[in-house]
Amino acid sequence: MIDRSGVVSDADAANLGSAGALSWRAAFHGRGLSLFGIFITNLVLILVTLGVYVFWAKVRVRRFLFSETELAGDRFAFHGRGVELLLGMLKALVVFGVPIALLRTVPTLVGASFLVTVACSTLGSVVAALFVPVARLGARRYRLARTSWRGIRFGFHGSVAVFMAVFFKGWLLTLLTLGVYYPVYLTRSYGFLVRHSSFGSASFEFDGNGRALVLDWVYTLLLTVPTLGLVWFWFVARKRQYLWSHTSFRGVRFRSTVTGGRLLALVAGNVALIVLTVGLAWPWTIARAARFHCANLTLDAPVDLAGIEQLQAGAPTTGEGLLSFLDLDMGFV
């Protein structure tokens, strides 16, 4: 499919595109039982190594999930390594964790005044907040660089400084508008991440502005209490439909068919499985969720892959470690 230079030829691209005459649909083939075996092994090794193996555990789960995810007849692959995540965490601790810890603890240890202690603690919290967008961007850069499909790796080329401006401007306007601006901020943040993501030498596109979500957002806030929060499933579904419909690759748009009712049924079923099995069904719930999200995602037409070149796959791991350090990286995935 791909020659030694890492370029998809015109002929092979035509053959690849024939996998879906009308559209390309994602599919997940993994089974809960297989994932359960991985989780049990991971749990034992994490306990034996006093938690150190958690980085390798994340990699094993990611590799399984990616290898079982298919698009247009070919599966994805994750190439990350546990040692990379471990080193990323250590770098994050040294570069970011130590200064924050010192700001929060040293004033108390040296007997500083109450005002100085509060000021230093507040400054530590502000510094930690500044690193949130850095962590999100760094983790995305790392994960995309370690993900491939049909032998070509993904990539991310966005500027941290620009994303920080988008991030803090969005939250400031959200606060000033009492939350009404949030869907616009969410869309702009998502759009930045998409437009600076690539598959090989070809970039993704995004043309949404988020204004179409504002009314849905206001309705959601107003109906949260009367519906006991159930209205949020419909907002999440609407948000996914909107964001995916404005995301495209080489002129072909993505499409999400998820609905609020289906999303509610998925979550309710997963919660019931976890409760009834005292947590043992967790791997099955992850497989169910992956299968659900893939089944509801398509590309409206085959994509022309001709001429896409492989780019440099390297990426720093600090962002991934910082995301875990800030407790924004949930679970083993």
Task: Provide a brief overview of the structure.
By secondary structure, the protein is an alpha+beta fold. The chain is about 60% helix and about 10% strand.
Write up what this structure looks like.
This protein is α+β, with helices and mostly antiparallel strands and 333 residues long. It has one domain (10-325). It contains twelve helices and ten strands. It has a ten-stranded antiparallel β-barrel with strand order 1-2-3-4-5-6-7-8-9-10, surrounded by five helices. Helix 4 (82-109) crosses helix 12. It is globular, with a radius of gyration of 22 Å.
Q: What gyration radius follows from the Cα positions, in whole Å?
A: 22 Å
Uncertain runs: 1-20, 325-333
The largest sheet, given as strand count, sense and whether it forms a barrel, is: 10 strands, antiparallel, barrel
What is the oligomer described by this structure?
single chain
**Shape from CA axes?**
globular
Major sheet strand order: 1-2-3-4-5-6-7-8-9-10
* Through-space gap between termini: 30 Å
* Helical fraction: 55-70%
* Total separate domains: 1
The count of DSSP E runs of length 2 or more, i.e. the number of strands, is: 10
SSE order, as H and E?
Answer: HEHHEEHHEEHHEEHHEEHHEH
Mean pLDDT metric? 85
Q: Which percent band covers the strand fraction?
A: 5-15%
What is the overall number of helices? 12
Class derived from helix and strand content: alpha+beta
